[in-house]
Amino acid sequence: MRSDQTIDLGFTTIPITVYKGSKPGPVLALTAGIHGYEYPPVLALQRLQVKKLTGTLIVVHVANMPSFLGRTVYFSPLDGKNLNRVFPGKKDGTASEQIAYAITTEVIDKCDYLLDLHCGDGNESLRPYVYQTVTGDAAFDARIAELAANFGFDHIVIDKNRPKDAARSLYCSNTAITRGKPAMTVESGFLGGTDEKSTAAIVRGVESVMRYLKMIDGKPARVKKAVYLDPAEVLNSPATGILYPRVERNAMVKKGAVLAHITDFFGKKIADVKAPFAGVVLYVVATPPITEGQPVACVGRIRR
Q1: Which of 60, 98, 253, 268 is deepest in the core (most CB within 10 A)?
Q2: Nearest to 113 by CA among 175, 185, 32, 28
Q3: Helix 138-151 / helix 196-212 crossing angle, nearest 10 deg
Q4: What pTM value is reported for the model?
Q5: Are the C-beta atoms of residues 66 and 77 closer than 8 Å to each other?
Q6: CA separation for the pair 95, 14 (Å, rounded)
């Protein structure tokens, strides 16, 4: 049974679909549009076909409607905040905090598992990968690892640095994890595009996880040979100016390789951004504007 619903916050709405299967089973939540300029996850959930379901599927089609309709990168046009840095939110907070609170209470608190679906924002050239959070609880971490492996993406970032405090979880997927629910973040797509390959990969991955959880029939497409990345480091810009990327997404780089350089607005080079270690470029900002403190690239070290 399908039920289309809307969470009305007054200043915005959050469209949600709830599918209830004919048999009891896991409750899986899928969130798209946490960042409004990330389109393949939104399109993937439009294409998801739910038939002969066991359990319940909660689909958040566009979490951050102000950013989606405003076509803004990272930050909400209403309060200037990054929705994926304010979880679990506040009932009486700013716009982004209220959205985070609604998703926490109406979606995360009601699910058993969560997949937070992302891609390269409008400025990021990104290769597909997933984040696998490590909490230190071996049994719980094994459940998260299985979730990541059964999504089917071959590059898996081992993330050991997420907050442990449920009251300051910051990230959507981490909000589920700090509440004892296996969850992960998925990245597929780049530069605000809507390419078929990235969108289809998300659909396949979601369906594979649903098969792993025995919510739908079929065998999950578990990754056969994963590339584990530990650590993955985001390199932030040391200056404001014009960015010139020097590498492509998925490039292998050596320690000290120049990933990008920055000029002032007259064309004088003022900074280089270099790889902190040898590894693979998971994403690089590929549009000219850059602000001090904002991401330039992310490099992951391949764990041997």
Answers
A1: 60
A2: 28
A3: 130
A4: 0.98
A5: yes
A6: 12
**Whole-angstrom Cα distance, residue 241 to residue 160?**
32
Domain boundary assignment for the chain: 2-212, 230-302
What is the tens place of the pLDDT at every residue in 144-202?
999 999 999 999 999 999 999 999 999 999 999 999 999 999 999 999 999 999 999 99
How far apart, in whole angstroms, are the C-alpha atoms of residue 221 and residue 213?
12
- Work out the number of other CB atoms within 10 angstroms of the CB of residue 73: 19
Residue 274 phi, psi dihedral angles, 5° rounding: -115, 155
CATH topology for 2-212? Aminopeptidase (3.40.630)
> pLDDT tens, 2-34?
999 999 999 999 999 999 999 999 999 999 999
| Residue among 119, 140, 301, 147 nearest 227 (CA) | 301
DSSP-assigned beta bridge partners for residue 8: 13
Q: Dihedral sign for Cα 96, 43, 235, 298, please.
A: positive
The pair of structure tokens assigned to 283 is: 């994403």
Residue 26 contacts residue 53 (beta carbons within 8 Å): no
Q: Which residues contact 228 (CB under 8 A, 6 or more apart)?
A: 156, 158, 302, 303
What is the Cα–Cα distance from 158 to 142, expressed in whole angstroms? 12
* 230-302 belongs to CATH 1.10.443.10: no
Tokens describing residue 245: 């990327």
Q: Are 273 and 258 in contact (CB under 8 A)?
A: yes
- 10 vs 3: CA distance, rounded Å: 21
Q: Are 50 and 138 in contact (CB under 8 A)?
A: no
Length of the chain in terms of residues written: 304
SS3 assignment, position 148: helix
